[in-house]
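Sanity check

After download, print the first record. It should look like this:
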Amino acid sequence: MEELEKLIKEIATEEGIQIKDAIKLAINLLRINQANQPGKHSIPANGCGHLEG
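Expected structure tokens:
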């Protein structure tokens, strides 16, 4: 938990925002990252849009 607090304070300092806004920013970034993860039933594709396997 200490590391998380340190990271949030670091984000707030770097971005010039308050701690509560840094927490909101971190939560939003986590949500975006989670939304961009492949789904359980998704099929991997290579860079050209062709299915692999």
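If your output differs, re-run the checksum step. Summary of this record's structure: The CA atoms of residues 16 and 22 lie 9 Å apart.
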